[in-house]
Amino acid sequence: MTSPSWNPPDSSQVGATLETFILEGMFQVPGATGTFTALLNQISLTAKLITGRVRSAGLADILGYTGETNVQGETVQKLDIIANETMIASLRRQGHCAALASEELEEPVYFPKATGNYLVVADPLDGSSNIDVNVSIGTIFGILRHDRSKGPPTLESFMQRGRDYVASGYVIYGSSTVLVLTTGKGVHAFTYDPTAGEFFLSHENIRCPTKGSIYSVNEGNQSRWSEGVKRWVAHVKDTDKASGRPYSHRYVGSLVADAHRTLLKGGIFAYPADNKNPKGKLRLLYEASPVAMIFEAAGGRATLGNSSVLDITPSELHQRVPLIVGSTEDVDTYERIVGEYDR
Ligand code: AFP
User: Fold this and answer.
1) 325 forms bridges with which residues in the sheet?
2) Secondary structure of residue 149 in the 3-state scheme
3) Which ligand 1 atom lies nearest to the CA of residue 283?
């Protein structure tokens, strides 16, 4: 038997902790007050707390449904509630976040004692249909600026384009917990080491490959798709050696998991509009915009099908949109084929 040629790296030597990394970033911004840095630290704390609950879900008897439905009309599971409450509790504590809009709440929750000028949008537990079967789930978040000269935040304060978000990220609770973050310049991933209780920088400056070989879409929706989307799927499944087709198909059903794979390996994830969801299924503020910001900051693309996700100004808190993200060449091909048939 040969001895193993690879030893797991000591995570403490792989890179800085998330906290150090954020602090170092702050020192480069003249006049930074530390509010944004502290808010990011609260979000990282939220991720650690949710990780703990996700990892012990089976033991703690918190799997399964509560029997209630959320504002989207979907069945609420216990972990969804726990994640939502954890997020509210940690963001409320230090007063950096003035209000939170969550997938689980019809209206934003306002923190009147807060002095910070930031708003958070979040899907605290994304992919909840995968909880009971031990498949990756996640948390998605975006940080928005609130102009305090206009008074305390209102619903209107959240109606901001993704392009104006200050930061976006997601946490994937997979084989390990990974937090992916961008402030617009560069995308970095931090892997959680439960023994140290810290996120360590594990993927610095992630770049989405310009072309991939995987497409990710819920093929069960085929009969509801437009002609253009059907043609695009037929295209990626066609054989053409020169362009690397057919592509492989992967679909988890948790946006964080499908997006994370697409970000690292390239290819394309698509949740287009269809007959059942004519406006699309995914939520603009706390799913599409944060994920789109990450892809664009990593050199990938994010489109509604014919225009940029990051340029839409929301008209409702829980607005739904189509979302197509991935490698630039793959998203370009999607837009070209769908545009040709769905004028
Ligand atoms: P849940 O959080 O309700 O499970 O929704 C997951 C999700 O919003 C997103 O994470 C997936 O990409 C998408 O829905 C999956 O939708 P389908 O089940 O319709 O494929």
Assistant:
1) 269, 302
2) helix
3) 8
Intra-chain end-to-end CA distance of the chain, in Å: 62
**Cα 327 to ligand 1 centroid, rounded to whole Å:** 21
Number of helical H runs and strand E runs in the chain: 9, 17
Atom 17 of ligand 1 has which residue's CA nearest to it? Answer: 253
Contacts of 339 (CB under 8 A, 6+ apart): 228, 305, 306
Distance CA 130, CA 137 (A): 7
One-letter identity of residue 70:
N
pLDDT band at 30 (very low <50, low <70, confident <90, very high): low
Would you call 75 helix, strand, or coil by DSSP?
Answer: strand
Cα separation, 263 vs 278, in Å, equals 26
What is the pTM assigned to this prediction? 0.93
DSSP three-state, residue 245: strand
Ligand 1 mean position, distance from CA 127 (Å): 5
Dihedral (CA of 159, 161, 166, 168) sign: positive
pLDDT at 4 over 70: no
Instruction: Give the distance between the most distant pair of CA atoms in the chain.
Output: 70
**Which residues make Cβ contacts (< 8 Å) with residue 318, sequence separation at least 6?**
71, 72, 103, 283, 285
The string of DSSP letters for 183-201 reads SSS-EEEEEEETTTTEEEE
Distance CA(242)–CA(244), nearest Å, equals 6
pLDDT at 14: 54
What percent of the chain has pLDDT above 90? 77
Residue 214 has pLDDT above 80, yes or no: yes
Cis check: omega of the bond before 246, within 30 degrees of 0:
yes
CA 237/CA 220 separation, integer angstroms? 15
Is residue 273 within 8 Å of 93, Cβ to Cβ? no
